[in-house]
């Protein structure tokens, strides 16, 4: 499986009317680190845990996750876009 993973912390903070400075103070993570979160391809495990707990979200909820390719039950290979929420529905 191939996935596209995009951080969405800025969007979450905006929806909750929380500034980066306020969130930095709440979490103890520097404002600069909070600011870089959505531009980074790697995140410290500790930061993921702290951020997700502060927002009462799962770590997965801090990202938009899209499956880029998959194999069906007959072994047919597909390339395209399938959102993780659709995959979860398919697997139930």
Can you give a write-up of this model?
The chain has helices at 9-15, 20-27, 31-36, 45-55, 84-90; strands at residues 2-7, 63-71, 77-83. The protein is an alpha+beta fold. The protein contains 5 helices and 3 strands, in the order βααααββα. Strand 2 (63-71) and strand 3 form a beta hairpin.
Q: What structural class results from the helix and strand content?
A: alpha+beta
The residue ranges in which pLDDT falls below 50 over 5 or more consecutive positions are none
Task: Say how many strands there are.
Answer: 3
Separation of termini? 18 Å
Adjacency order of strands in the biggest sheet: 1-2-3
Principal-axis shape: elongated
Give the helices and strands as they follow along the chain.
EHHHHEEH
What does the largest sheet look like?
3 strands, antiparallel
Could you outline the blueprint of secondary structure elements for this entry?
Layout: E1 2-7, H1 9-15, H2 20-27, H3 31-36, H4 45-55, E2 63-71, E3 77-83, H5 84-90
Antiparallel strand pairs: 1-2, 2-3
Features:
single chain; 92 residues; alpha+beta; three-stranded antiparallel β-sheet; 5 helices; 24% strand; elongated
Brief digest:
The chain is an alpha+beta fold.
């Amino acid at each position: 499986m191939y996935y596209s993973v995009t951080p969405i912390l800025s969007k979450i903070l905006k929806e909750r009317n929380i500034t980066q400075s306020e969130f930095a103070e709440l979490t103890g993570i520097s404002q600069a680190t909070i600011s870089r979160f959505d531009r980074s391809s790697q995140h410290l495990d500790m930061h993921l845990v702290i951020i997700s707990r502060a927002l009462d979200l799962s770590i997965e909820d801090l990202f938009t996750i899209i499956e880029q390719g998959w194999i069906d039950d007959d072994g047919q290979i597909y390339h395209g876009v399938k959102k993780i929420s659709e995959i979860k529905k398919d697997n139930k």
